[in-house]
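Researcher: I'd like a candidate sequence for this fold, 425 residues long. If you have to choose between options at a position, lean toward the conservative one.
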């Protein structure tokens, strides 16, 4: 009996030792399992779902040229925009020929020829564009970034023309083979016949001849906690220490990485200067790395579009623009919201910035408001452009924080040639 009792006691002690060893190996800070533990924790503290890069690649607007000096515009998430873009994504473009932008009379093409112009803002690398459109680029074209695609018909020509504009400004690539007929282009253009007419100004921007109806939305808002962001960004959130700053912001660090939180602006800045370089870096690879990083460290709290992949000295800045409905949300000095910004060094994220605010869009209270158009808008633009000419005009939203709600107010966002941005409401 005693021998059996000793055997049971020994078995219990061995089992207890195994359990204790398990916790020592897999639960203490600094063990190899910390990465796995953190990844599991991140999923419970998501700021939003993960996103595929393909869903972040789309034009910021679609300009429809109907001939006879008539134009209209479609914006993302609108019926005709989605219909046309989805059809174009299924078409193939091959045999690209490099030409000078001066080989074309763009004013004449814009005024006289039926066509579709896709604007990609600051530009998109061709290797990323291949993920949403069927392109067969040569090595030269593959290294470019594209800010516009213009597909149009020419009178007495049996084929449609497709031209891709390099962000360098002086070069275009024309697809000698395009899986589009003249009838296809005309059918797409015809969707704009009964839409709001626009007038082109100086070949740069378009002014609607009528007032534009937009939705103003007010929705409940909140803020992600510092603890949530620590869990998202540090391998071992418990090892961080707090460093107070004189300007009222808070800094948390684990000696390698740092998280700075500005609670007045509801804005966070994360930096990892010791991040190991991944090696070869291109604008496309860095954009993909940026998407992966956001997926793994918070997710996407809304609808976003890849806005730019700017190279600055030895760093590359990748930014994503948040949208509400069809239009971008403008970040302002007094309320930074609507953008996610990452900096990469040799393919590795070294800096990550975003708002800590979130909204509950499904509970939004909406009403229709009108933005000025026609002569009224032209007069306002003439006043603005007295110092510097207008370069771009697009509807946008300004975020206004009111206690526990966020109001998105429609405005015209006006970009001047000197780079400054103004608004007209």
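Model: Candidate sequence:
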């Amino acid at each position: 009996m005693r021998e059996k009792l000793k055997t049971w006691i020994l078995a219990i002690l061995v089992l207890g030792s195994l359990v204790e060893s398990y916790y020592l190996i897999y639960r203490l800070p600094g063990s190899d399992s910390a990465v796995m533990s953190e990844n599991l924790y991140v999923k419970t503290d998501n700021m939003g779902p993960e996103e595929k890069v393909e869903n972040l690649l789309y034009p910021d607007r679609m300009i429809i040229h109907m001939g006879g000096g008539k134009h209209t515009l479609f914006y993302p998430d609108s019926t005709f925009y989605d219909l046309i873009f989805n059809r174009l994504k299924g078409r193939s473009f091959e045999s690209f020929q490099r030409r000078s932008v001066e080989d074309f009379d763009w004013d004449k093409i814009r005024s006289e020829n039926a066509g579709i112009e896709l604007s990609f803002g600051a530009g998109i690398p061709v290797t990323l564009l291949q993920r949403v459109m069927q392109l067969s680029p040569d090595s030269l074209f593959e290294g470019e970034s594209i800010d516009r695609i213009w597909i149009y018909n020419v009178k007495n020509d049996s084929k449609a023309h497709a031209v891709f504009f390099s962000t360098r400004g002086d070069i275009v690539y024309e697809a000698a083979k395009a899986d589009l007929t003249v009838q296809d282009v005309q059918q797409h253009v015809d969707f704009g016949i009964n839409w709001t007419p626009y007038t082109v100004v100086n070949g740069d921007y378009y002014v609607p001849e009528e007032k534009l109806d937009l939705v103003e939305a007010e929705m409940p808002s909140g803020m992600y906690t510092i603890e949530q962001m620590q869990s998202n960004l540090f391998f071992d959130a418990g090892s961080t220490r707090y460093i107070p700053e004189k300007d009222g912001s808070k800094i948390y660090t684990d000696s390698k990485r740092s998280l700075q939180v500005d609670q007045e602006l509801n804005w966070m800045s994360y930096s990892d200067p010791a991040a190991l370089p991944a090696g070869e870096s291109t604008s496309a690879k860095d954009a993909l790395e940026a998407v992966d990083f956001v997926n793994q460290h918070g997710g996407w709290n809304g609808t976003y579009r890849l806005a730019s992949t700017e190279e600055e000295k030895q760093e590359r800045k990748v930014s994503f623009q948040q949208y509400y409905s069809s239009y971008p949300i403008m970040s302002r000095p007094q309320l930074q919201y609507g953008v996610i910004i990452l900096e990469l060094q040799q393919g590795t994220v070294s800096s990550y910035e975003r708002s800590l605010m979130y909204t509950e869009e499904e509970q939004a209270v909406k009403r229709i408001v009108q933005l000025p158009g026609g002569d009224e808008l032209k007069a306002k633009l003439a006043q603005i452009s007295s110092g510097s000419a207008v370069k771009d005009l697009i509807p946008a939203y300004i975020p206004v924080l009111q206690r526990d709600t966020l109001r998105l107010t429609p405005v015209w966002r006006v970009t001047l040639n000197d780079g400054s941005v103004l608004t007209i409401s």
